[in-house]
């Protein structure tokens, strides 16, 4: 169908590198804002997380492919140097994006691993060791997990005192879902992508939404284990026992999560839309790159 | 890699050694003058087979982590817990809640909940009432209802 058109476009004008650059901007800056506003997708957290990852990966791929997609212009037999003014910036953009990602990945990765290892060692020394959990002898109710190769679920005595058995079971199921699903890797990926963007352009929309979505996903696991009522009661009890995180720009996740529990799981349409969108976002850059070399 | 096999064991020993030191300083009270490697080693008697040099290594690691302090006593070191167990527990709690950089903390550790304001609590209570009413309306059938609807 359009094969001839594409070939002509690639010969006469450097269309594809521009398309890829535009797609990168679209997926990295425009799409996250739009997606964060489509709150209905929170009811399908797993599909929504796939969509967020696909958009991020797609944006990165598009930026990384801009350079390679410009290379065929140099192989143009007639005038290889004619396109240098386009090829050089395109390759530079791809190289800079790759460099920033690698740097951010190293930086975030080492820092997270150090913080987790330090904290795990401290918990192992001061906490009481139980079969599945570590208990901190402290009256403030808190529950969290330390992800990683040697993961831990940590509860405070305050949480044991505040929650009856079934609600406690919900909290533990929630934390175990984080660990089993390796939600830490998702958060780390989005932390890296966020950090790789230069500070003035940086937005935490994606990371904030992914944080909420992994909580909603872990809540689903708690519901499967103990039911909606126990999970919702645990959320309410613990939300009331702790002051909000003042340092956080965004609101607390508890109201949204409880609302999601009240609304229940979505029909088949929302996940279907999210998965189709994800497939499109992740494959489009590769299709364009393929066309550039076709 | 020897590290991967010895690290968990040393971590476990660090806890036991700290417990010994906390015990000793607790029973000794203000007159506690620290424990030498030999004294800590003797506390393991009958509990488990631990080499003297292992106890030394563990105490050295704990000193590097600032969990114990030590003072010279002739040719030996006398070791003290840097903090009481309660103080160290409180410090661990504080770290998870306040101390770390907020972005680090929220990515490094996954908390069950991040707290809520008073206004939000009112919304929370409404949502809970809804969930409870739904569950009460169909006692023990909430699961069945969903399977019916899905069909």
Give the arrangement of secondary structure elements.
The complex is a heterodimer of chains A (294) and B (151).
Chain A lengths: L2 H10 L2 H23 L7 H30 L9 H43 L1 E2 L4 E3 L6 E4 L5 E5 H6 L2 H16 L2 H14 L8 H22 L1 H13 L13 H10 L5 H25 L1
Parallel strand pairs in A: 2-4
Antiparallel strand pairs in A: 1-2, 3-4
Chain B lengths: L1 H27 L8 H7 L8 H13 L3 E6 L2 E6 L3 H15 L2 H7 L1 E2 L6 H20 L4 H9 L1
Antiparallel strand pairs in B: 1-2
Helix pairs in contact in B: 1-3, 2-3
Assembly status: heterodimer
User: What is the β-strand count of chain B?
Assistant: 3
How many domain regions of chain B? 2
Fourth-level CATH superfamily of the largest domain in chain B = Winged helix-like DNA-binding domain superfamily/Winged helix DNA-binding domain
Percent range for helical residues of chain A?
Answer: over 70%
Question: Quick one: CATH class of the largest domain in chain B?
Answer: Mainly Alpha
Structural class of chain A: mainly alpha
Order of helices and strands of chain A: HHHHEEEEHHHHHHH
Low-confidence stretches of chain A: 246-250
Question: Can you count the helices of chain B?
Answer: 7
What is the total domain count of chain A?
1
E-strand count of chain A? 4
The biggest sheet of chain B, with number of strands, parallel, antiparallel or mixed sense and barrel status, is: 2 strands, antiparallel
CA-atom Rg of chain A in angstroms: 23 Å
Overall outline of chain A: elongated
Structural class of chain B: mainly alpha
Mean pLDDT of chain B: 79
